[in-house]
Amino acid sequence: LIVGLQADGPAKQVxxxxxxxxxxxxxxxxxxxxxxxxxxxxxxxxAVGRWxxxxxxxxxxxxxxxxxxxxxxxxxxxxxxLVPRRTLVVALGATAVMALVVLVIPQAGKYYGxxxxxxxxASFDTGSVxxxxxxxxxxxxxxxxxxxxxxxxxxxxxxxxxxxVPPRPxxxxxxxxxxxxxxxxxxxxxxxxxxxxxxxxVVAGAGCGxxxxxYLVFDGLPERDVAAECGPYxxxxxxxxxxxxxxxxxxxITTTWDVADRRLEAGGEVLASNDPAAVAQIAEGFxxxxxxxxxxxxxxxxxxxxxxxxxxxxxxxxxxxxxxxHEALHGIMEAIAAADPGAVRVVDLAGWVAEQGLEGDxxxxxxxxxxxxDAATMxxxxxxxxxxxxxxxx
Length: 394
Fold this sequence. Notes:
alpha/beta, five-stranded parallel beta sheet
């Protein structure tokens, strides 16, 4: 580009037009202000379409940059009375602008999680419960009749026609990282609204995936010793809480922490999470968690495939946007379920989210990873809640 501008030619002619010259003058403002403008608009949730939202972002960014150029940048650069102190004034001006950005732009905080009243309404009943044997309703006129295959006590395949109705609420415990907490808030809301179908308790461990060893490696951050930081959650908190709750089904979900780069041991080679050696280590941890839950008497363990985060909101070095890493995790889950289909299942939430066009919805996941409670409730109502009840009863 630089070489092309040294002589007359198409590049010089195009970039010498007034719109491009004007853009060059305000380019620093465009660079400075585009990020807060984009973040603000992403959080508004306006239904203007993908391209409409982009056009609005660009228009506002250009408008703000022009105001900054004429009201702030140009006066400072051309004012004679500032010559002796121009450096100081420019530095103070830049500091003021950045302070304004920090103060005006709402900072991302924890926006997900169930409120206490809803959690109490959805919590497990205390005391003993009747065996969870499915019954069916008779489909009336206009009802949809569904056929669901399962296995009986002998392992023979059985088929039930009609919507499954539990004789009592299905007890569902949700285990995983902060995505389990975010999605669990929707499951809690769904259960509170459907008390005859399910009761839900969330046993989440923020910052902890479900593999239990290795050292996670992130750009610009300290390495994480998984056993040291997450061992108490995986080996103590989860087993103890599950033993207390005695759920009919445990739902397992993980994302960020199990798709990160990792070392198998301290000082070892850094591997992608889908490297065969890393996959083997993760699979060992997933299998251990599954075996622990089954050993505690949990009748059904369900691995839920994690949806890929909103790629457009991730940084260029963020491994969460790598589809192949998520596919590797899904493969581990499917292999564990295939080895024990009577007790372990997989619910393909990732596939359903993709079918619904929710993968890139920034209003549903403002930070790219965690569902808002409204979005999680919709997902639980339309798909996940009924899917888990079905898996518990078949």
